[in-house]
């Protein structure tokens, strides 16, 4: 019930300011989109030579699909960051991009200051026997 209550709390801000609720939804959409694009961009730029593809790979389409994800995320970030009405003032400004920027900066700072010293990476989600089974079906 706590989670349900917290999910509905932003709706009550409509009584105070409809722009605030729009900023909350915009920030959530931007955050979700960017959270998928950051690992893709890191794989394309930082790990382009060292990344070992798993059994589920796009093969030669990896870079095309990856860069299209990054391009779409950039376009979506611009679209969702546009103010909602003109003239722009403090009451109708879209603060979602600034909030997302603060979260990204805070996450990066947390990584640099602490997490990089103890985080060893995610545990594998597929075992070697599953990978053998995938190859038996002829999938690449």
From TrEMBL:
What Gene Ontology terms describe what this protein does at the molecular function level? transmembrane transporter activity
Annotated keywords? Membrane, Transmembrane, Transmembrane helix, Transport
Q: Which GO terms describe its cellular component?
A: membrane
Q: What is this protein called?
A: Amino acid permease
Q: Where in the cell is it found?
A: Membrane
Topology with regard to the membrane? Answer: Multi-pass membrane protein
List all membrane-crossing ranges.
58-81, 93-111
